[in-house]
Amino acid sequence: FSAESMEELISVLSEAVQTSSTEMVVEEQGRGWLKIKGADLRGHDVIDAETGEKVAFLSNTRNTIELDAGVYNVTVANATWKSIEVKAGETTVIAPGILQVRHASYRGHPVLDAETGEEVGLVSSSASSITLIPGEYLVAFGGVNWRVKVDEGERVVLNPGVIRVKGASSRGHLIKTRDGQEVGFVSNVSSSFPLPPGEYTIEIGGKDVSFSLKEGEIKIINLRKK
Question: What's the burial of 122, exposed, middle or buried (CB within 10 Å: 0-12/13-18/19+)?
Answer without folding.
Answer: middle
